[in-house]
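User: Can you help me understand a structure? I only have the sequence.
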Amino acid sequence: MNVPKPPNVATRLVLAATRGTVLGYAKRGAGLSTRAFDSSYSLSPLPGHRFYGWTHYGVMIPKVAAPHQYLSVMVMAGMPGQRAFDVDDVVTTTPRDTATVSISTAAAAYYGTASMRDDCIFDPGAEELHFGAELAIGGRYPEFNVEIDIPGLTAQLRFTLAERATWFVQGRPYDHLSLLGQYTGWIQTSDARVDVSGVGNIEYARCVGPYALRNRLLPWRYKAPVDFFTYHVIELSADAQLLFCRVGMLGDRIGDLVQLRTLSGDGDWRVNEIATARTFYDVLEYQGTPSTDSTGNHEMLLPHRFRLGVRDRVEVIGTTDTPARFGVGRGYIAGYRANIEIDGRRINTRGYSEFVDVTKEATNRLTQ
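Assistant: Let's start by predicting it. Here is the structure, written out as tokens:
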């Protein structure tokens, strides 16, 4: 068995400094998460912004009726300049201008790119964003509409969002927030139309990035060494979710965030962890063969069974049961069965996962 070498002194210093910075932004986000969301906060894609290099939009619904199981919309508007998230081979104009659009359920999927200059419509007056012909997000907090039109699937969803946002991090260089809300609508395939309703997320992020300064792709060695990411949204009840996020850099954990949240805010709790084993994420079993995108590229072994949670508080055992869909940076999106122990209760439900692993260990795993 190959045992990873411990990081050298320089790497340990970089990791420690990054963890401290991330924890500071996460604590600031935790404070904002207890207050009403400021409706004047701009959710703009910021094309050509001189400070922010990229933005992100997401729609995540972890539990949807069969055959869909989950619904995901993942937009990266601009390449981030990070190893886990830059997809160099799909950039046809410039990294700052390229938006990747991933839309999927268990029944259908789409992945494509759009030029923000030529293919997208960002009309602040109409309060509507069009990412190519496949996706439109419109409205104003707390009401948003999402329209999807991809081969094999169309959908219309209307969200009414809760009073408070979950701020994963908040700081001048990087904001990332998630708005929980109730939704209604429908999803249609060639076989049937399914009326849907429940709780789901609309998410937004904006961050500095190197392509705001130099709009040419960076070689791998110069990209920010973020090399691991996993994010989970798990439905606990008709008005509650569990969120879990882990970020890694240089082959080591940078930090975990675990949050239980409700529409009302009653009983919400959160754990930000950068140092101890209080929070955990373990892959119990990888899938038998690597996943690839539609062209056979971006091989990655994905978790089939895994566990995550907070020691002595909540444990989730997940078993992936939907096709893996390429589209979160260089990684994949899937739905899974979730068996949960929380506060002395057992819950059988569903979860949504994002997983990116471009560490050296992941590369070695592919060749074993």
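Now, to help you interpret it: The chain has a mean pLDDT of 96. The two ends are 11 Å apart (CA to CA). Let me know which part you'd like to focus on.
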